[in-house]
Amino acid sequence: MRSSLRHTPTLLRHARAVRPSCWAPMASAVQSPSLGAPALAPASARASSSSSVNPSEISHFNALAATWWDPHGSSRILHLMNPLRHDFISTCRASSPTVTSSTPTGQLRYLDVGCGGGIFAESAARLPSTASVTAIDPSPGVLAVARSHAARDPGLTAEKLEYISATIETLPPRERSKDFDVVTLFEVIEHVDHPAAFIDRCGEFVKPGGWLVMSTIARTWTSWFTTNLMAEDILGVVPKGTHDWRKYINEDELRAHFRGKGGWSSPRVLGVVYIPGLGWKEVKGSEKIGNYFFALQRDA
Ligand SMILES: C[S@@+](CC[C@H](N)C(=O)[O-])C[C@H]1O[C@@H](n2cnc3c(N)ncnc32)[C@H](O)[C@@H]1O
User: One MF term from GO for this chain (predicted)?
Assistant: First the structure.
């Protein structure tokens, strides 16, 4: 990927060197983007008491619900990404093998925030190493699809997989008292309001020694070209209007956010690129320009 960048048109190369002037500070969402605003600014008191839900995002995802489980439908790209999510989580956990799980059997408890139709949640619940998956989403149409799809598999008992219509702010007290080994936010943080506060709240549910795992998109001219222009407008592999480039978050902003907070260590990142016909592939360094996974371990 790096070497191919040398062959990009001069204008694009120049644009990338300048970097987008439209930062998306997490605390203030994107209403007033400003040059050089602190990336991932700490969540303000106002943001931390506000909902992360953006109504137009919810309408957008509800409209896609019907085809969520069609492997060639609106969520095709998410289906193809799913195996990499499991590999990434395994790699993160293997990097600190001494940390125990929250259950006596050694099985893991997951909280999947913004689970959508359940692509990751279902697959995680089927793993023998899983004790339970709590999967939450504020889009009612999407959650209805998730529930009805899971109901087709008798192995996905309520104990294994529970869907809750909630955001991280409205998670019921019963779930709040659980310790989660892994909290996942896959392709979600670029769709929420007040992302810094949202991430912090999600982090509160990770048990000491557990992992907060997310995937998102870097805010660069290349990602605008690939995820907005190519994927949505030209190739149509992602439904039009899915992504607002201004809400993308860079990996160094996430690192700085967590460094500033303390209590988290071992940041891990994996840059991935979607190659039509081949699917998602790991491309070292691509986290700086497009899609990537990011994880941190909560200090034990
Ligand atoms: C691109 S989809 C990703 C779904 C799923 N994580 C996956 O990758 O298969 C984004 C999801 O985030 C959900 N979402 C939007 N705002 C949210 C919020 N404030 N809290 C939790 N989920 C949210 C949407 O309803 C949608 O299902």
Answer: metal ion binding
